[in-house]
Amino acid sequence: MTDYMWMKDRITSSEQLRVTIEEPREAILKKTVNVVDEHIERYLQMSSLFFLGTSNADRLTDVSPRGGKAGFVKVLDDKHLAFPDRPGNKRVDSLLNIIQNPQVGMVFIIPGLSEVLRINGKAVITQNEEFIRSQGWEGATTGLSVVVEVEECFIHCPKAFIQGGVWSPESWAQKEEMPSTTDMYKAHLLLNGITL
Fold first, then answer.
1. pLDDT tens digits for the chain (196 residues)?
2. What is the rounded distance in angstroms from the CA atom of residue 171 to the CA atom of residue 163?
3. How far is CA 188 from each of CA 91, 195, 196, rounded to the nearest angstrom?
4. 117 CB burial (10 A radius; 0-12, 13-18, 19+)
5. Cα(80)–Cα(107) distance, rounded to whole angstroms?
6. I want to staple 151 with a disulfide (CB 3.0 to 4.6 A). Which of 38, 51, 121, 173 is the partner?
């Protein structure tokens, strides 16, 4: 497709958008809270995976998964959460972004539950050994932790997970049909002039 059809009839204003999608009901707007209450804390205690969205000073964005034993994201008080930084590929995209722009978005998942928990806030990175030790995180860390000041929390409806069949094994592709991430990795290195 070379004529860039998607460039025609673009939506460029909130007014245009609201012609197609009306304003949400009051209950949808009012479900957002700015504190970690007992319901959010319970969700976090059962969550073993979340996706961390960050962006740098130039507004280039990144989303990366973070996982651990259920409850690895700790509630410090009703306004603050903490999670460990784990050893990985050393790109540290999220951490570099947080240094430039502290605003983060997080989507938390409990395996088998289609509703996700969304939390937005401001993050800082700490290397305070006493604090990190006090959290009792299992497994290796880089010696760093991220602490998030909560600004917005809300439960997101299950439609995306239901439509995607995420928890329905009968809708999953067979392993042999799945993309080879090894082949993808090698192909992308080759595009950048590196041969393994």
1. 567 888 888 999 999 999 999 999 999 989 999 999 999 999 999 999 999 999 999 999 999 999 999 999 999 999 999 999 999 999 999 999 999 999 999 999 999 999 999 999 999 999 999 999 999 999 999 999 999 999 999 999 999 999 999 999 999 999 999 999 999 999 999 999 998 7
2. 11
3. 16, 10, 11
4. buried
5. 16
6. 121
